[in-house]
Design a protein that fits this description.
InterPro entries: Histidine_triad_CS, Histidine_triad_HIT, HIT-like, HIT-like_sf. Residues 10-123 form the HIT domain. The chain is 24% helix and 20% strand. It is built from three helices and five strands. It has a five-stranded antiparallel β-sheet, with helices on one face. A hairpin with a 7-residue loop joins strand 2 and strand 3.
């Protein structure tokens, strides 16, 4: 699979400081910010600072340091936002990849969503 990175995608522009964001957390390898169209009371986007297109691209090609930093930052955000599973509330972590995954921005990103019951993730298949 070719991972064609678009340097003009909205997240690349946010990383360059061309578009403002409501930063939730920032580390050496990761930026997290509030989604501009939140689907729940807590809706944070977590993105790597590197040029990765999808979940599989990131995990296949990022350095160990980038991967660890990304996931530890996401966990810290869950705790800070009060949605970590050990609070009893919980959250959903979603990443979309490619056409069938309905990926809208060609930069790997993780949605952390919580603060209310979220319902089923997908409708049950008929069969």
């Amino acid at each position: 699979m070719a991972y064609d990175y678009d340097d003009d995608n909205i997240f690349a522009r946010i990383l360059r400081g061309e578009i403002p964001n409501a930063t939730v957390a920032e580390t050496e390898h990761t930026l997290a910010f509030a989604d501009i169209t939140p689907q729940a009371p807590v809706h944070v986007l977590v993105i790597p600072k590197g040029r990765y297109v999808t979940y599989d691209d990131f995990h296949a090609n990022a350095s160990d340091a980038e991967i660890v930093d990304f996931h530890r930052t996401a966990a810290a955000i869950c705790a800070e936002q009060g949605i970590a599973a050990d609070t009893g509330a919980g959250f959903r972590a979603i990443t979309n990849a490619g056409r069938d995954g309905v990926q809208e921005v060609p930069h790997f990103h993780l949605h952390l969503i919580g603060g209310r019951p979220l319902g089923r993730m997908l409708a049950r298949a008929e069969g």
